[in-house]
Design brief:
By secondary structure, the protein is α+β, with helices and mostly antiparallel strands. It has helices at about 45-50, 55-60, 80-85, 115-120, 190-200, and strands at about 10, 20, 25-30, 35-45, 45, 65-75, 90-95, 100-105, 135, 160-165, 170-180. It has a 5-stranded mixed beta sheet, with no helix packed on it. The protein has a 4-stranded antiparallel beta sheet with strand order 6-4-3-9, with helices on one face. It has a two-stranded antiparallel sheet with strand order 2-5.
């Protein structure tokens, strides 16, 4: 719920020194397990945290603005459906304040698990989501371009502009910042309920 939308800052933990974007398709699944739509996502990877231990996954992922979803939710209909997700080619571009530019791609056709199989593993007899869920499908992208020097690979710098795009889902654009420098997440479930009640929508 603390993810951000397009145009917002996306966060990296201030103690992370090795991280990268993860351009993905995101599925929207209702409480009955039916996949009803899709969007784009950037599930920022803190490689130095996640690579050390699975026990650090929470520290890597459960941070303020640590992922982005958008630019909109496209509902499935007769013109756009799961087969379009299966064949999507996701483009990535990182443009740094230092003049650095990196381009990459991720093909959904090359992901080893079918998107609906991922959904079936996430929700079913063993685990329910009474409000539905948003599921990141994974990425085939891995950065290999050196940034700070030969052999040092890629890592984000504050101010990087990351664009994740595919023709049928638009472009998700975010600027990279530190999670402790981004405005804190304050609008949670309780605030949403109060907001809806004030507007007579409950």
């Amino acid at each position: 719920m603390s993810s951000v939308g397009t145009g917002a800052d996306v966060g990296i933990h201030p103690k992370s020194a090795w991280n990268n974007p993860e351009p993905e398709v995101v599925l929207f699944v209702n409480s009955r397990g039916a996949t009803v739509g899709a969007a784009l996502g950037n599930d920022v990877n803190l490689r130095d945290f996640e690579g050390r231990s699975a026990l650090l996954l929470g520290k890597a992922k459960d941070n303020n603005a640590s992922c982005a979803i958008g630019p909109f939710l496209r509902l499935f209909d007769e013109r756009f459906g799961i087969d379009d997700v299966r064949s999507a080619e996701i483009a990535l571009r990182v443009e740094g304040p230092d003049g650095f530019v990196m381009d990459g791609r991720s093909s959904m056709a090359r992901i080893s698990r079918d998107p609906l199989d991922l959904v079936a593993q996430a929700i079913g007899p063993n685990h329910q989501y009474p409000d539905g869920l948003v599921l990141f499908c994974g990425t085939m992208f891995a950065p290999v371009q050196d940034r700070r020097g030969p052999g040092q690979g890629f890592t984000h710098e504050v101010g990087d502009v990351v664009t994740v795009a595919t023709p049928r889902l638009g472009a998700l654009v975010n600027r990279v910042n530190r999670t402790d420098a981004i405005a804190p997440w304050t609008f949670g479930s309780r605030a949403l309920m109060h907001n809806l009640a004030r507007r007579g929508l409950l």
